[in-house]
Design goal:
219 residues, alpha/beta, Rossmann fold, Arc Repressor Mutant, subunit A, 2 domains, five-stranded parallel β-sheet, four-stranded antiparallel β-sheet
């Protein structure tokens, strides 16, 4: 499995444990924020985690509102909610609720259980998270389901990121045909792809037009 990326919401607290350091020691990429607003800013800035962890014990809350906020923003991602013994989760919409005390290994086991078994097939480049099998693309905190043709186009561009790809070459590889004269269809698909991966499709920063050649994906 490729490196697991986590968004962990927790504060320093003398009474309850923090988990960021222990998870990093186990090879996970952990981004730590201290509030729901910071979590949303992190997502809007392009961080695309595989899973959320809400250490509500260190926040001195039951985490219900925070979990609901994350669920509204990224409804497909698993959420692990960590509670102190005196708190109840209620209808938090968390995927898993863990009540302290528990071991770090138990937390790691829950993380791995919640992630899809085909995680190795997820293409991760910069803010892009593409599942070629399902066509689900997550980028800049948005989720889009791509058509098989758009999946193929994005996959080819990701495989050749940083390279100027000729229109005819892209058309040949994505449409698998020797007829490459009518590349208008390609241009339309590029436009659709920009809507999915660009913060502002009208001013593309990543999927760029190379005049006289074709397109280049810079991530």
């Amino acid at each position: 499995m490729s490196e697991i990326q986590l968004l962990l919401i927790e504060k320093k607290h003398t009474e309850y444990p923090q988990f960021a350091a222990a998870l990093r020691q186990r090879g996970m990429d952990v981004r730590v924020v201290q509030s729901g607003s910071e979590a949303l800013k992190c997502l809007q800035a392009g961080f695309s985690p595989d899973l959320f962890i809400v250490n509500a014990a260190t926040l001195r809350t039951n985490g219900k509102r925070l979990c609901q906020t994350l669920r509204a923003y990224e409804d497909d991602l698993p959420i692990i909610l960590i509670l102190s013994p005196e708190r109840e989760a209620g209808n938090s919409q968390a995927s898993v609720v863990l009540v302290l005390p528990f071991t770090v290994q138990k937390l790691v086991n829950r993380i791995r259980h919640l992630l899809p078994p085909d995680g190795a097939d997820i293409l991760k480049v910069g803010p892009v998270r593409l599942n070629p099998r399902t066509g689900v693309l997550r980028c800049w905190g948005r989720q889009t389901r791509l058509t098989p043709r758009l999946v193929r186009l994005l996959t080819v561009l990701l495989e050749h990121r940083g390279e100027a790809m000729e229109r005819a070459t892209l058309f040949s590889q994505v449409w698998e045909t020797d007829y490459t004269e009518d590349t208008r269809t390609l241009d339309v698909h590029i436009s659709w792809l920009r809507r999915a991966i660009e913060p502002d499709p009208r001013q593309p920063r990543f999927l760029k037009t190379v005049r006289g050649v074709g397109y280049r994906l810079d991530l």
